Amino acid sequence: MSAEAAKLENCHSTWTVAICGDCGAVRKFPNRCDLFFCPECQSTIGHHRKRQVEWWTKLVQQPKHVVLTVKNVRNLTAGHVAELRSWFTKLRRRKFARNWQGGFYSIECTNEGSGWHLHLHALVEAKWIDQAALNAEWSSATKGFGRIVRVKDVRQGSYMAEVTKYVAKGSDLAKWSAPDISTFVRAFQNARTFGVFGALYGARTHFAEFIASIRDHRPKCDCGSCNVRYLSETDFLLLDLRPPVQASPAPPPDLQQQLLQPTAAELLPR
Fold first, then answer.
1. CB of 63 closer than 8 Å to CB of 261
2. Quick one: which of 176, 187, 231, 265 is 20 to 30 A from 252 by CA?
């Protein structure tokens, strides 16, 4: 934990400056720790997650947004997080879910003072999911630990916000006490909170190729240029201290024109 605390403390402490060689635009990028519990990095992590989901949603023709919740617990542990994932796997393997062709899921965690509350958002490729049957199957798969379930057909609606939520919002983390934050970090450290299953699982190779194509071909500047130079913050500041290049003064236009004209001596035959 001490190493991660150091990474968190140093997050957004230095900057890299990008200067476009074509349009001259200057952009600054902070260093990031990319820790899932970092309030500074969560917006970037959420943006990358949204890009992933946007790709997966193109493969889902009959999207059903499924929400599964479990009873609040007083003590949050890594075992409980893994247990939730195992319950979801057990549910998908039941006869009830044989028409679930594939999908992806995201685990979210909240704590509003009444204990730790885990819930799972899933986007499922299925023509029909009966909510009453899902409730019974979820209760059975969790041995009575499951609670509220919800199913919504989202072919016409906006569902990106729900399924792209990252484990816990930075604003929620900021409200927690130090012991609660420590508990949360220990429970979710190295835990998989987002994944695909079924038919979408087999499309992972295409997804990797998609990500590689974006990384290799996207322009480095908003103007579309890839002619970008990267400097450290110190080197960028030193640019202002460098003396400007002194160019030789050009003669006045009339004198310059005279200098270009041949002299009488040059016109004389030799």
1. no
2. 265
Determine the length of the chain: 270
Distance CA 70, CA 120 (A): 9
Whole-Å CA distances, 145 to 88, 92, 123, 194: 12, 17, 22, 21
| Alpha-carbon span 108 to 122, nearest angstrom | 11
Listed in sequence order, the DSSP H helices in 193-261 are: 204-217, 233-238, 253-260
Q: Which domains does the chain have, with CATH numbers?
A: 42-217 (3.30.70.60)
Angle at 80 between CA 203 and CA 103, to 5 degrees: 20
The Cα 70–Cα 145 span in angstroms is: 6
pLDDT one-digit tens code per residue, 87-136: 999 999 999 999 999 888 889 999 988 899 999 999 899 999 999 999 99
Closest listed residue to residue 104, CA positions, set 123, 127, 128: 123
- Greatest Cα-to-Cα distance within the chain, rounded to the nearest angstrom: 113
Confidence of residue 268 (pLDDT cuts 50, 70, 90): very low
| Cβ-Cβ contacts under 8 Å for 9 (sequence gap 6 or more) | none
CA 171 to chain centre: 17
